Amino acid sequence: MKSKCSVLINLLVLQNLAVLCVSQDFDFFYLVQQWPGSFCDSDKSSCCYPTTGKPAADFGIHGLWPNYNDGSYPQNCDSNNPFNESEISDLISSMRKNWPSLSCPSSNGESFWTHEWEKHGTCSESVLDQHDYFETTLGLKQQTKLLQSLQSAGINPNGKFYSLSDIRDAIKEGTGYTPWIECNEDSSGNSQLYQVYLCVDKSGSNLIECPVFPKGKCGSQIEFPTF
Ligand code: 5GP
Ligand code: 5GP
Questions:
Q1: 8 A C-beta contact, residue 152 and residue 144
Q2: Cα dihedral sign, 8-18-209-38
Q3: Which of 79, 143, 193, 214 has the fewest CB atoms found within 10 Å of its own CB?
Q4: What is the distance in A from the centroid of ligand 2 to the CA of 30?
Q5: DSSP conformation letters of 4-53
Q6: Does residue 74 form part of some domain?
Q7: What's the CA-to-centroid distance between 1 and ligand 2, angstroms?
Q8: Looking at 87, 115, 116, 131, which residue is catalytic?
Q9: pTM (global) more than 0.70
Q10: What percent of the chain shows pLDDT beyond 70?
């Protein structure tokens, strides 16, 4: 009897551990890209260019964020796996170009990349190790060509206002998938195009339709500021 009980107990412990592991996993990623002009003229953030100079007038990566289908998300999943720049030395020049940090004080990106890896990347380490995480994100950015999609539809970063649905349609036309647009406000209180979210399957390989969108809203006409 005793041994039957201990088998049962072991099974229960194993089952609970399995549930714990599954619940720490994730369902899909948000690929989040920011428009530097909107980060820089927002009423909330001050902006500092990297020491290597002003980034190109293009969308930059903010991050690749593991998420759950119910809209919640895991964060800071493994303090034993800190950011280690030497693991991505072959990617640094592309990171500086495509994933620049615009926050102050001025930096070359390392603190931004550390934050993104430790908060988000560690939550998908079962699928993508550190090198894969950054390489995959860079590849996804190249695949989405946001600015090109917008410009092909006559939507340019010139300080003019465009309809939110035209912006969405242009990105859908270019990428094949419906984006979610996050706005912030300029110093005069105008709603402007700040970040674009697209969804990526759990392997990090394919864009997908978003299982759930984040919360928040933009005006129906939003500004696309210069940078
Ligand atoms: P905010 O509150 O400014 O929208 O977001 C602050 C930070 O929380 C983001 O930069 C990101 O790290 C995290 N965050 C916000 N919304 C989401 C989300 O829907 N999914 C994930 N994975 N992270 C999010
Ligand atoms: P989140 O938690 O929002 O993913 O990460 C944003 C954090 O990264 C903030 O602490 C912010 O100060 C820092 N950060 C550094 N550079 C940038 C940047 O260029 N854009 C944004 N949105 N955050 C940045």
A1: no
A2: positive
A3: 79
A4: 15
A5: HHHHHHHHHHHHHHHHHHHHHS-SEEEEEEE-HHHHHTBSS------TT-
A6: yes
A7: 58
A8: 116
A9: yes
A10: 89
CATH code of the domain covering residue 102: 3.90.730.10
Which residue range(s) make up the domain with 37?
18-144+178-217
| Tokens, residue 137 | 């994100």
Q: Which of 120, 135, 182, 223 is catalytic?
A: 120
pLDDT tens digits along 28-54:
999 999 999 999 999 777 899 999 999
Tell me if residue 120 is catalytic: yes
Residue 170 maps to a domain: no
Residue 122 phi/psi, 5° resolution?
-65, -15
In this structure, what DSSP letter does residue 215 have? S
User: Could you tell me if residue 150 is inside a domain?
Assistant: no
Q: Structural domain tally of the chain?
A: 1
* Cα-to-centroid distance, 37 and ligand 1 (Å): 20
Vertex 106: Cα angle to 58 and 59 (nearest 5): 10
